[in-house]
Amino acid sequence: MNKFLPAVAGIALLAGAQTSCAAEDTSANLARDIMGELVAVNTAPSGGSDTRKAVELLVRHLKAAGFEDSQINALGQTEALQNLVVRYPSANPSRPPLLLMAHLDVVEALPADWNYEPFVMTEDGGWYYGRGTNDNKAGAAILIANLIRLHNEGFEPDRDLIVMLTADEETTGNATKWLLAEHRDLVDAEFALNTDGGPILLIDGKPLALMLQTSEKIYVSFTLQATDPGGHSSRPHRDSAISRLSRALVDLEAYEFPIDLNETTRTFFERWISIAPEDEAMIRAVLADKPDPEALDALLDEHYYNAIARTTCVATQLDGGHAENALPQTARAVVNCRYLPQSDLTTVRNTLEEIVAPYNVSVSQIDPSTPSPPSPLSPPIVDPITEIAQSMWEGIEVIPEMSTGATDGAYVRNAGIPVYTVSAVADDPNDMRAHGQDERIGVQAFKDSNYYWYRLIKSFTTSTADAP
Ligand SMILES: [Zn+2]
Questions:
Q1: Cis status, amide bond into 134, omega within 30 of 0
Q2: Would residue 289 be called left, alpha or beta, if left means φ above 0 and alpha means ψ between -120 and 50 degrees?
Q3: Gap between the Cα atoms of 457 and 147, Å rounded
Q4: C-alpha R_g of the chain
Q5: pLDDT tens for each residue of 246-277
Q6: CA separation for the pair 401, 271 (Å, rounded)
Q7: What count of other Cβ atoms lies within 10 Å of the Cβ of residue 299?
Q8: Distance from the CA of 313 to the center of ligand 1, in angstroms?
Q9: How far is the CA of 418 from the centre of ligand 1 (A)?
Q10: Structure confidence at residue 293 (pLDDT)
Q11: What is the mean pLDDT of the segment spanning 204-231?
């Protein structure tokens, strides 16, 4: 009978694989259905920036799956701006909680600009189309579907799992600030994993790199102002308010903040050479202790690299004069700066003041900035993120990155909780449509990301070596 053993073993293996596949499909289908329901709720400004219905439908899913009222918190600063915080408790926590993040609001979408209905999820040609499919309703759906899957499987985490879905990431970020300030106990965690960024770069259909966002630049704007007694424009004097402000702005454009790398951006450039070998000389110049000024000149035309390597300040708005036939009494410009997280506000402000001082132009800060220390590339966090990715996408490189924009992650980092943003959604970097027309996510990419997050969550909530 021995000759049948291999066949029997084969059947057993097949059955095991099928079980895991079926669980995979069930979870991915649930995540897809939830994403479709979320897309159908207009959480853009044209829908009143109202996230209530999105929160309500997620609460229905959680309750139907057996989550208890005490685990579910729907709360917000206003009736419309509702956030959802769900806790999947550990019966026996041995570590502080893990926070999982996504946001429920979306950027505006005008139906006339789209080839698909923006607030209906449409599957077409291997893609799910709809506002929020990419940014960031896929992430919200994946987190909720995975909580439900883990619950159905009776999974016992060794720490509390907290899912935080926020209401206004695309506008003020106030919801996150408010949750951290007023409800810290609900969302406090050792660190956070965020679905809102960190794609897989799909180049010629091949997944080359998983971006892991661990840092972001800091946003601050200033008003530059020149004043003058003014007078009749038929008898002009030298150095009018507009002339002085203009010269100050020309000098500002000519100024380059020094190259300054942190752990994330240094690692980014080191690993990026393998993705963009054609840029190796320039990248080596950025990485050099004493960069060659000529090599760095070319960097100014590489806007992405340049923005990663240094603080930038640029004039974005102008306003001056009060009449066609009068000398201006006031001229103003808004200068928007994105400073490096390892730098500081005083340095930026002092630099601006030095640049404009010869023209008697004043500098005043418009809104407070939120410092956001880069999250360390700690092996206990980065290793599982890398190993699971490499087991799913052969040969993929994990590349830490600093966002040149700002997200909810800034407030969480500022509150002392490191944030690692990694959607693991594969997409073509030359055709990313978040915030744009015909936003979409690949059907397979969505399913893979859902499974990646299942494994990621389990690996960070399982102490023993039998993580998936
Ligand atoms: Zn987003």
A1: no
A2: alpha
A3: 9
A4: 25
A5: 999 999 999 999 999 999 999 999 999 999 99
A6: 10
A7: 21
A8: 24
A9: 18
A10: 81
A11: 95
Token pair for 229? 């007694």
> How do residues 122-131 score in pLDDT, each as one tens digit?
999 999 999 9
Mean of the pLDDT values across residues 373-382?
96
Residue 11 pLDDT greater than 70, yes or no: no
Distance 130 CA to ligand 1 centre (A): 14
Gap from CA of 282 to ligand 1 centroid (Å): 31
Type and span of the H or E element at 427: strand 426-427
- Cα(381)–Cα(203) distance, integer angstroms: 26
Q: Which of 176, 155, 190, 174 is nearest to 66 (CA)?
A: 155
Ligand 1 center to 175 CA (angstroms): 14
Domains, the chain? 22-197+407-459 (3.40.630.10), 216-365 (3.30.70.360)
Question: From CA 286, how far away is CA 306, in angstroms rounded?
Answer: 9
Structure tokens at 109: 């979408």
Ligand 1 center to 340 CA (angstroms) = 21
Question: What would the mean pLDDT of 445-457 be, rounded to a whole number?
Answer: 97
Number of neighbours of residue 333 by Cβ within 10 angstroms: 22
